Amino acid sequence: MIFTIFGNPVEHSKSPLMHNYYFKKTNLKHCYARYLLENGNEIIDKFKELKISGANVTVPHKEWAFKLADEVRGVAKDMGAVNTLILEEGKVVGYNTDGPGFMEVIREFDYKKPLIIGAGGTARAISYLLKADIVNRSEKRLEFFREKGFNVYTWDNFEFKNYDLIINTTSAGLKDENLPMPKEMLEKVFKNAKYAVDVVYGKKTPFIKLAQKYNLKTRDGLYLLVYQGILAMELFLGEKIDKKEAEKIYFDILKD
Ligand SMILES: NC(=O)c1ccc[n+]([C@@H]2O[C@H](COP(=O)([O-])OP(=O)(O)OC[C@H]3O[C@@H](n4cnc5c(N)ncnc54)[C@H](OP(=O)(O)O)[C@@H]3O)[C@@H](O)[C@H]2O)c1
What is the mean pLDDT of residues 146-153? Predict the structure, then answer.
């Protein structure tokens, strides 16, 4: 079977590397490619034209995949975003493994009051399964969460509560050395917290560095990359896989 990732840009994606390595290590004769898709509204036509069996979808096409898939299943229906497409009996079916993958990342954490920083697509995916307060740099994207009954804040009206799990879902720190919120505010939050999770991967972000200064237990974006990938692999293969073995394989190829 052939799989791909659709995105724009897509050259930085680690998905081909990690999924092909999984196929190799488990002796499966499948192949995973990457596809630079400029127009998100062509995603399903392209999927069918390429005659592939499944695909991942990354920025900025997750909403197009949700809108255009022949059918959407599971939590993706409520999230309004699809990150995995599977060919099932001639239909292209959409799923979302970001939210469930994130819950795997924090499964060993003993937390009571989570705070999500950022209000974009990743925050939507995570907040659907994790009832958290949301703080964002600006107001506009908060409306979606407010309508759904979340406590939402901008930096200006943020209220400090006893947050113990702090999640950065912004891209701050990816291509710069920015923190996702002003340093003094973040330090005040970290003082009472136990855990910090970043979705950015590929470098030690200022967010993770600061969290470690406050002795928080941290997880960088590699964990989400791995767990959303394992759940996608189960959908690609149409069966449960040995998650412990898969974790080992994915971390092994991604760790450097
Ligand atoms: N590890 C993984 O497997 C994984 C999975 C999914 C996503 N990600 C990563 O998650 C990040 C976010 O993706 P997304 O799709 O959610 O993006 P998005 O929908 O564009 O949302 C971006 C969010 O980040 C905020 N933001 C951006 N730059 C900021 C800065 N310098 N300071 C403070 N806030 C800032 C934006 O605030 P405004 O509303 O004020 O603009 C917005 O809330 C990306 O880096 C992506 O690669 C990783």
Answer: 96
Substitution site in 66, 169, 181 for ligand 1 pocket (most atoms within 8 Å of beta carbon): 169
pLDDT exceeds cutoff 90 at 87: yes
Give the pLDDT mean for 118-123: 91
256 pLDDT more than 80: no
Q: Which of 61, 84, 124, 137 to mutate to test the pocket of ligand 1 (most atoms within 8 A of CB)?
A: 137
Bridge partners of 224, per DSSP, are: none
H or E element in which residue 48 lies: helix 43-50
The H or E element spanning position 93 is strand 91-95
Active site residue 191: no
Domains along the sequence of the chain with CATH: 2-96+222-254 (3.40.50.10860), 101-219 (3.40.50.720)
The reported pTM is 0.93
| Both tokens assigned to 149 | 């009954």
